[in-house]
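Aim 2 progress update. The chain analyzed this quarter is reproduced below.
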Amino acid sequence: MKMLTSVALSIVVSLVSSSAMAERPDFSKTAAARADYDFSKNVSAAEQPNNIQRISSRHDFSKTLAATSAYDFSKNPKPTMNLRTNPSTQHDFSKTNTAKESAM
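Predicted structure tokens:
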């Protein structure tokens, strides 16, 4: 019985909230809703010019500074080596504050 009540309540809440939250556009206020609107003057999709410019996904590296013959790669800054020590995977929990307090 509780399951049936729960399902029924969730359905009612979802229906009421979705209809209350949804904005219903008022098409009566649009220009096409007027009685004198001439639909024959609409431009069809076939008549519209297709002016979509394709943007190349390839970059022209010949226009970069490094592509010029005068570019000197030996003047590039040398990378610095960062030495890092990896921490130990084992931890001594006997040295923690909690272990010290529980031993007292």
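Residues 60 and 67 are 10 Å apart (CA to CA). The two ends are 56 Å apart (CA to CA). These observations will guide the mutagenesis experiments scheduled for the next reporting period.
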